[in-house]
Every structure is written in C-alpha cells, then in structure tokens.
C-alpha cells in the first residue's frame, strides 16, 4: 500500500517493504528522517538512530509528537502513510523546479490518444511514396486532382466515410420501392404507332421528370445556401462593406 510513495522517494525496496518487521521499520524511520524529512538537526538524531535500544519506541513516540503526527504509535500503517506523505511534500518543496514541468502519466496518455485520433498529423506530405499512394487512390476513386496532396487525402477520407463504410454500403444496397404508376393516366403527347414503344416512351418521360425534380431540389438548396450567406449582416455584399 506504500509502493507509490516509496518509489517517489527512491526507497531501495518499495515493493518489499514490510512495516510489521520491527528492524526494517526502525531502519526505515531513520532513513526517512535522515534523507527526506530532516526535522531534527544531525546531532539530535542519535536516539532515533539507536534502533537496538530498548528505549527506541519512546524516542520514536517523541519524534511523532515533534513532527505533529496525528496517529498513535500503535497505529503503525497509518503512521507510516502519514510520514511518507510528509516526506513527499518536503521532497517536492526542495525540488520544485525539477517537478514543475513534469507531466502526469494520465496527461501523457491523453496526449498520445489525441495524436492517435488525428492520423494525418505526422504525415510527411513531401514524401514521394505518400504522393504516389494518394494519387493512386484519387485515380481509383475518380477524385479530381489537387496541387495539395493533403487536400486530396482528406477528400478521399470524406468519400470513404460517406460511401464505403459498412453503413453506407448497407444503405445503398437496400432496394427502393416506389409507388405503382398507372401509365394510362399519363398522356404521352404523340403516338409511335406501336403500343410497346408508346409504353416505353411514357416510362422514359416519367424518369426524365423525376431527374428534373431532383435537379430542381438541389438548385433550390443551393439558392437557399447562397441567400443565407448574403443575408448574413457580417457579409452582406449589398452594403458594400463588412458589418452593419
């Protein structure tokens, strides 16, 4: 339970430390005071360093009071944890410049995740292999060439996301069922002299009308988009200036 703090303090055996072993515990307290806490002057540490003395528990109890430890001597684990916390705080205070620019592991992982989330960030756009690969993909997907290969790569990514993902392919594969059309209700306007040809002409005419409707819809959307830009007070070209 003390491993992280012991490691932070460069203790020689952070994984194997056993505070229940009396000799190891006393040596640890001496090391902590000598190397990290340094509450006593060197000449005043004699009683604490005499770990084989029968009076050592009394010396340690006095030491706990002197450093204002809130636990009793019988509460060994709590005492060790508190003293380690004190030592870590003092260690940081002595080496503030060393630790102020350090990055926590969690933050490093976050930075790495952010970099991995944007795969284009580390690409060398001037690499001949990169250019050749982008050009090959653009030709395969019939994407218009651009002087900036990174722009072409982004266009490829957009196309793949919109048309080649599993959801897009599944949606495109779904059969579209339209409403039944009564051809006899639609007047052709001319007569070929052949009933089959008349019916085929009616079908072609209806398909052409549908295409015109789709085109008109796209035109309307474009008009609305342009009107939204022009109507923006910040970019109103009718005013001949930016802003109101």
UniProtKB/TrEMBL annotation:
Q: Which residues form the signal peptide?
A: none
Note the superkingdom of the native organism: Eukaryota
**TM spans (from-to):** none
What stretch or stretches form a coiled coil here? none
Which Pfam family, an example, fits this chain?
RLL
What family is this? Belongs to the RTRAF family.
Q: PANTHER family, per this entry?
A: CLE (PTHR15924)
Q: What is this protein called?
A: RNA transcription, translation and transport factor protein
Organism whose genome encodes this protein: Smutsornis africanus
């Amino acid at each position: 339970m003390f491993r992280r703090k012991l490691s932070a303090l460069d203790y020689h055996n952070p994984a194997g430390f056993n505070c229940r072993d009396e000799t190891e515990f006393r040596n640890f307290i001496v090391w902590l005071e000598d190397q990290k806490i340094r509450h006593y002057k060197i000449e005043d540490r004699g009683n604490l360093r005499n770990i084989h003395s029968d009076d050592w528990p009394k010396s340690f109890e006095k030491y706990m009071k002197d450093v204002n430890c809130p636990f009793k001597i019988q509460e060994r684990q709590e005492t060790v944890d508190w003293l380690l916390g004190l030592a870590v705080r003092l260690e940081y205070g002595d080496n503030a410049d060393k630790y102020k620019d350090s990055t926590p592991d969690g933050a490093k992982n976050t930075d790495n995740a952010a970099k991995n989330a944007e795969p284009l960030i580390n690409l060398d756009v001037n690499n001949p292999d990169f250019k050749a690969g982008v050009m090959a993909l653009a030709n395969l997907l019939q994407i218009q060439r651009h002087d900036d290969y990174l722009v072409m790569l982004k266009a490829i990514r957009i196309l793949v996301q919109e048309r080649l993902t599993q959801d897009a392919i599944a949606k495109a594969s779904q059969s579209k069922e339209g409403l039944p059309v009564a051809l006899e209700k639609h007047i052709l306007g001319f007569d070929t002299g052949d009933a089959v040809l008349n019916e085929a002409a009616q079908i072609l005419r209806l398909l052409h009308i549908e295409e015109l409707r789709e085109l008109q819809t796209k035109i309307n959307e474009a008009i609305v988009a342009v009107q939204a830009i022009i109507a923006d007070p910040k970019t109103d070209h009718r005013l001949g200036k930016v802003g109101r």
